[in-house]
Specification:
- The structure is a single chain.
- This protein is α/β, with parallel strands linked by helices.
- It has a single domain, classed as TIM Barrel (Alpha-Beta Barrel).
- It has 11 helices and 12 strands.
- The strands form 3 sheets. Strands 1, 2, 3, 4, 5, 6, 9 and 10 form an 8-stranded parallel sheet that branches. The protein has a two-stranded antiparallel sheet with strand order 7-8.
- The longest helix has 18 residues.
- The protein is globular, with a radius of gyration of 20 Å.
- Bound molecules: zinc ion.
- Zinc ion binds next to loops.
């Protein structure tokens, strides 16, 4: 497959491609249809994405997509995976953010040309981000009601994270209202939990696993680890049978003694396999196309202002650093099937990939 990619490479920026827009929308549709596939479907996903790499359906840059060098594309660059907990007007810990702070952070991201993608899209490299823009992953742990509840009209209640995110997206072009929720039991306060999970899934949000009871996984037996993960997966799938549940956030960022059990396992007939396992701290995550990408240990950045305990490792500090060193950041070439990066990049590309690598 890689050799056919190479063969196409010589023509991709020189020949006009009138079918490009149609091809792009059809194949992006195909790619994202994979995101709603049946449980445990990573095999199916791989089959789907290799199908979409055949010449007739490969995503092609639209005629207006600028060359990677024009936008400084760097798809080996780093991606902030931001971590949120409660969104509350009365914070009680460094993990809480107020609705006002959350809205301000989202506006900053939009103004600095970040585009939200889900953890699953990040981990599988299926990031559909316009040329010149930067992916960011918004993750929410513990399924707090302040993240999401529905009002009497069946819409996200004002000042919940979901309402604020959709509000900011509506007023910023290209800013997608997507995020990944790491769900524990009971989800979002328990009341109407199934309805809330379905609403999130139907509106493009990712449902991820955060265990049933939030134990520190290093302190429990292997069978309890698999029970905690498989049990939560089953709860989510009971509410949303076509959810993928392909990513996992470690409670408190702590691995089980057997780290592989965070990735794959089985309990009472329920199997799980995760494309990404999320830590708690404390730096930007590597590109999924870089050799350093480790799906078992994806770092996150706590959402935080510029003061308080640990602020030097919080989101304000990291977004400042990435803005000051733009060459570190992942910048999209606008073509999900091609990985473009400066030929003199200090980052080593992954040895294996379904995608075409395009150093320039
Ligand atoms: Zn948690």
């Amino acid at each position: 497959m890689r050799s056919s990619h190479r063969a196409r490479q010589s023509t991709r920026h020189s020949t006009p491609r009138p079918r490009a827009l149609l091809a792009l929308s059809v194949s992006v549709g195909l790619l994202f249809a994979g995101g709603c596939a049946s449980p445990g479907s990573s095999e199916a996903d791989r089959a789907e994405s290799s199908q979409s790499s055949t010449p007739d359906s490969t995503p092609a840059p639209s005629p207006t997509t600028p060359a990677p060098s024009e936008v400084g594309a760097n798809e080996l660059g780093e991606i902030p995976v931001l971590m949120y907990h409660r969104i509350t007007p009365e914070p009680t810990s460094v993990y809480d953010r107020t609705p006002r702070q959350f809205r301000a952070e989202l506006r900053r991201l939009a103004e600095e040309d970040y585009v939200p993608v889900t953890t699953s899209e990040y981990a599988t490299g299926r990031m559909d981000v316009p040329a010149g823009k930067h992916p960011v992953v918004l993750t929410f742990d513990d399924a707090a009601e302040s993240q999401f509840r529905l009002n009497e009209e069946g819409k996200p209640a004002a000042d919940t994270a979901v309402a604020i995110l959709r509000d900011v997206a509506a007023s910023h072009e290209d800013f997608r209202p997507v995020a990944s929720f790491y769900v524990t039991n009971p989800p979002f306060g328990g009341e109407q939990a199934e309805r809330k999970l379905r609403w999130l899934h139907e509106h493009g949000f990712e449902l991820g696993n955060h265990t049933l009871d939030h134990p520190t996984l290093s302190t429990v037996s292997a069978s309890e680890v698999t029970h905690q993960i498989a049990g939560m997966r089953r709860e989510i799938l009971d509410a949303v049978p076509d959810a993928e549940v392909s990513t996992f956030a470690l409670p408190r960022g702590v691995h089980p003694d057997s780290e592989q059990l965070a990735r794959s396992g089985e309990s009472r007939g329920t199997r799980y396999h995760h494309d990404a396992v999320l830590l708690v701290g404390a730096r930007p995550a590597p590109s999924p196309h870089a050799a350093g990408f480790d799906p078992l240990n994806v770092p996150r950045i706590r959402s935080q202002g510029d003061s308080g305990s640990g602020a030097e490792l919080g989101s304000t500090a990291w977004l400042d650093k990435l803005a000051a060193e733009p060459s570190r950041r992942y910048t999209s070439d606008g073509d999900p099937s091609v990985v473009s990066y400066p030929a003199d990049s200090s980052v080593t590309p992954a040895a294996e990939s379904e995608r075409e690598f395009n150093p320039y």
